[in-house]
Amino acid sequence: xxxxxxxxxxxxxxxxxxxxxxxxxxxxxxxxxxxxxxxxxxxxxxxxxxxxxxxxxxxxxxxxxxxxxxxxxxxxxxxxxxxxxxxxxxxxxxxxxxxxxxxxxxxxxxxxxxxxxxxxxxxxxxxxxxxxxxxxxxxxxxxxxxxxxxxxxxxxxxxxxxxxxxxxxxxxxxxxxxxxxxxxxxxxxxxxxxxxxxxxxxxxxxxxxxxxxxxxxxxxxxxxxxxx
Length: 228
Known about the structure:
Layout: E1 14-19, H1 30-46, E2 49-57, E3 60-67, H2 72-92, E4 104-107, H3 110-122, H4 124-127, H5 142-146, H6 158-161, H7 167-178, H8 184-196, H9 203-213
Antiparallel strand pairs: 1-3, 1-4, 2-3
Helix pairs in contact: 1-2
């Protein structure tokens, strides 16, 4: 089934995924992770994108971000990719593409899905068997949320800020939920949405996006078209 055109409306949080070409590594040593985060911060600032959560896995990246302007995420990813690939090619004397041709993106409904996306992204290394709890993984935003010290470029979404009046209170509330695995149904919905490039949320949310854009953003149900 072909993927629908990307929906990249400003003001809506978006789940963004970029994978290494042919699922090959895109990070090879510790300095690569630091370099990626450096350019991510620069790119987000340059194109008015708020980064809420992230994880850098050896062969792919997840971001949860809200663009402040139309096209902000696309321009951020182009800028980030260009500078990071230059670093990799120069450091490892390589040529050619590093990433898959196109990054994936899915709009996220705030009320029902945003905190699930925080958990989904930051628990990725746990599901992969790399660590026991999210904050043990160095290359994600989990430590900033579970052991906050103020030293981060993250801009937490209002939905996350509602968890408590202080960073410590929010960390305590988030810790309780982060220790619980996401339901299989939630995992499946997130994965289908990002793979197909469709909004993640209720039918009402998807209808709102369709009315705003004037085009379909939902997948059609499989099956033959009815005969006329």
